[in-house]
Amino acid sequence: MSPVMLETNTIVDVRATIVQNRRISSNVSIITINCPSIAATAKPGNFVNIKVSSTSQPLLRRPFSIHNVQGALIEIMVKSIGCGTALFCDSVEDSTVMVLGPLGSFFSITDHVFNTAILVSGGIGTAPMLFLEKTLAAQGKTVINLIGGRTKNDLLAQNLSNCRFATDDGSTGFKGTVVDLLHRDLPGIEKEGPIKIFGCGPNPMLKVLAKFSNDHHVACDISLESVMGCGIGICYGCSVEINTPEKGIRTILLCREGPVIDAKLLVV
Ligand SMILES: Cc1cc2nc3c(=O)[nH]c(=O)nc-3n(C[C@H](O)[C@H](O)[C@H](O)COP(=O)(O)OP(=O)(O)OC[C@H]3O[C@@H](n4cnc5c(N)ncnc54)[C@H](O)[C@@H]3O)c2cc1C
Q1: 24 CB less than 6 Å from ligand 1?
Q2: What is the distance between the alpha carbons of residues 231 and 171, in angstroms, rounded to a whole number?
Q3: 140 CA from centroid of ligand 1 (Å)
Q4: Are residues 85 and 180 in the same domain?
Q5: Are 166 and 185 a contacting pair, CB within 8 Å?
Q6: Residue 250 and residue 265: Cα distance in Å, rounded?
Q7: Into how many domains does the chain fold?
């Protein structure tokens, strides 16, 4: 079993123009960047490392999943949580940013036979799901989105189809976590044929999802989060432990061998 779906020969670092900045909630924006070379080779689950400011503050780039690809354009869904993301959310159209990518591993669509993909996401973890949904749909797969958030204001279902919602406070959809919703709905979905689960969200949610999919013997890829520096395996800032059948527990750099890994490898 390999945790790595990595192609390094296509990575580029380009100065790219922001062509649109669309605020979709009080703290989330969708930013469209003209990036033909990255758009041409990106795969769902890949990320880009962006220098969000032309000044030295913040000094380091920030990692963002590729939310969507349309021709020469890539879209990033960004949630303002600190200095870098706040600056990026406020970026002005026609300004430029340095974009390094596409980086990291990607969701594997070909490693298992399945008809239905269940995309399980929470909070800003919904960001990579549009690109993934479009790619799966183009291959004739049925896609069901299970989307979770603390309240209805945290659900980010922009342009996704076939969505079922879970909120902690019950303000929309199922009251409970998105993995509880999966637990409720999996038996019905499984009757339609083989499935694969794809997850992205806060790491605690992904641990529960990994345990659930492993216990139910369902194939599952998860996209993990960590603080990242360089994004290309030099700074060692994003090391995480995984558990492989061949080598037991070992450390990987999430920027290179992740962020997407087989859920079986997660140390839960
Ligand atoms: C592979 C990957 C893909 C990502 N994709 C997206 C995306 O599509 N959209 C999006 O909005 N965000 C995404 N993130 C998270 C995003 O990179 C962080 O929110 C961002 O780096 C924070 O920068 P900041 O300067 O705003 O926050 P800072 O001022 O640096 O930090 C603010 C707070 O957030 C915490 N923090 C910083 N980075 C992370 C992180 N990676 N995970 C959890 N907590 C963090 C800090 O510890 C601190 O408490 C992704 C992260 C990774 C690793």
Answers
A1: no
A2: 37
A3: 33
A4: no
A5: no
A6: 10
A7: 2
Average pLDDT of the segment spanning 237-245: 92
Residue written as token pair 């996704």: 160
Residue 243, domain member (yes or no): no
The packing angle between helices 178-190 and 203-215, to 10°, is 30
88 and 166 fall within a common domain: no
What CATH number should be reported for the domain holding residue 92? 2.40.30.10
Find the 9 Cα to ligand 1 centroid distance in Å.
26
My answer on whether 133 and 221 are in the same domain is yes
**Look-up: residue for tokens 């999919």?**
213
Among protein residues, the one with the nearest Cα to ligand 1's atom 20 is: 62
Residues 77 and 183 in one domain: no
- In a domain, residue 37? The reply is yes
Q: Where does residue 162 fall: left (phi above 0), alpha (psi -120 to 50 degrees), or beta otherwise?
A: left
What distances in angstroms separate CA 71 from CA 35, 63, 92, 198, one per listed residue?
9, 22, 22, 24
Check pocket membership of 256 for ligand 1, CB cut-off 6 A.
no
Looking at the fold, whether 132 and 220 belong to one and the same domain comes out as yes
Take atom 50 of ligand 1 and give the residue whose Cα is closest.
Answer: 64
Q: Beta 28-34 vs 12-23: how paired, if at all?
A: antiparallel
pLDDT digits (tens, 9 = 90+) for 89-125: 999 999 999 999 999 999 999 878 899 999 999 999 9
Domain-located, residue 210: yes
For the stretch 9-31, pLDDT in tens is 689 999 999 999 999 999 999 99
Residues 168 and 198 in one domain: yes
CB burial of 206-244 (b: ≥16 within 10 Å; e: otherwise) equals bbbbbebbeeeebbbbbbbbeebbbbbeeeeebebebee
Spatial distance between the Cα atoms of 250 and 239, rounded to a whole number of angstroms: 10
Q: Which residues of 80-107 are buried (b: 16+ CB within 10 A; e: fewer)?
A: beeebbebbbebeeeeebbbbbbbbbbb
